[in-house]
Amino acid sequence: MGIFAWRNLLTRPLRTLLALIGLSIPILGVLGLFSLSDxxxxxxxxxxxxxxxxxxxxxxxxxxxxxxLPADLATRIRKIPGVRAAAPEVWGIAPNVEGQGxxxxxxxxxxxxxxxGALWDQTVISGQDVPAHANLKSAVFPRSVRDRGEGRxxxxxxxxxxxxxxxxxxxxxxxxxxxxxxxxxGTLKISETVFNIVGxxxxxxxxxxxxxxxDIESARKILKMxxxxxxxxxxxxxxxxxxxxxxxxxxxxxxxxxARSMNEVQADFGSLMGQVDKLLMMTVSLALLVGIVGIxxxxxxxxxxxxxEFGVLRTNGWSKSNILGLVTLESAFLGLLAGVVGCLMAxxxxxxxxxxxxxxxxxxxTPYSIVLGVGLSIVMGTLGxxxxxxxxxxxxxxxxxxxxxx
Length: 406
What we know:
By secondary structure, this protein is of the alpha+beta class. Strands 1, 3, 6, 7, 8, 9, 10, 11, 13 and 14 form a ten-stranded mixed sheet that branches.
């Protein structure tokens, strides 16, 4: 019966092809969206794996950019048992870089070859308390300058001076007058201040490579933040395995703050992406429903043209269940073919997209997504063929022959 069902599909190539297109496109959409979701998970995981400490910010804010804390909080946190170092930081979105404001950078990026990805390239300022950060063992940016960058990182001699460390991405996004990427020894104008570039780092993360690092006093002037405030405090523990306990202790001793270990941040992001996956599935379910309707239409037209064939098969001993199984098997084969085509299209699409994506975001097909795509397509094909199969099976043999002959 399987061979018979397969041959029936091949004898109507145009109709089979149109049905494949109608069903494979929703599968492509499903796999593409979940590939993006997995890529974001992996990117965030890789980014957080570079950060070992605890980030203390104001309670109920999403990130340090929107947080304000009293500057003397760092002194109190250093007295908590288990704290090895506490380094204050000031964070904020750069008001303008080289005369380009936030809106101009967003619109200009969308009009450029970067497209929507430019929205993720918004430059962020990180003002660091240089002496306090010098005591850290897990600081990301100094390690990135040393391992993959150029020049040097900030030291105590940079306090109060217009010296900055930027990423290779920023160096390329804001070329000099000759159109070349910024280099160590060059300058970069932020707001009304011209800064000297003393170092260039590269983390490989889309989330980290947008940061301009400077002395905390310089950042306060650019972001117009009072001296008595900071955005966040980066905390290192005496024993890294004890970070979760340290977070609870900080939140207990300092009400109104949120101490987040990187494990907690990753878990929260995973939970958020789980909700996003559900929303994506609800969205693409409409496309899947359209695909099922297309299968029903294709199989109904196929069975209508084959009434004589079904009548002859019934007169030669085929039962209703045999006819039901034949038509259902044809639609399942159609779903299988659509699943394979959809997976191939998704693989080609993600491979092509990765040629234009940077910053640690990589799209890809996992064994789970392939099984999901093919399995979902088979289920859709089978469901779409049930009604046409039932309609074909319930016909009396001679009536089917008579109707098919007209």
